[in-house]
Design a protein that fits this description.
Length: 88
């Protein structure tokens, strides 16, 4: 996976076939996005998705479930944890 020095990445999911999904944050733009890197056998293509596009895609794959799980860890019953900012 290629990540610029200004981007921060966290792996969301790695499939058994070698595909990888990462959650990235670019502090230059202030935006987070999902990067899918296909496995070598399929050409290793890299595709970036906005969070809205990725989560609204209508798919219920393990990569989506893992991102929802990660989001749930950031927000408790009392709302967002201190230090989290609204990206609206």
């Amino acid at each position: 996976m290629i990540v610029s020095p200004s981007e921060r990445a966290r792996q969301i999911y790695a499939s058994p076939n070698g595909d990888h999904w990462h959650l990235l944050f670019d502090p230059t733009t202030g935006h987070s996005f999902v990067r899918h890197t296909g496995n070598v056998a399929s050409g290793g293509h890299v595709t970036d998705f906005s969070l809205a596009t990725f989560l609204a895609s209508g798919r219920n794959g393990p990569e989506h479930q893992e991102l929802w799980r990660l989001i749930a860890t950031l927000v408790g019953e009392d709302g967002p944890r201190p230090g989290l900012r609204d990206s609206a």
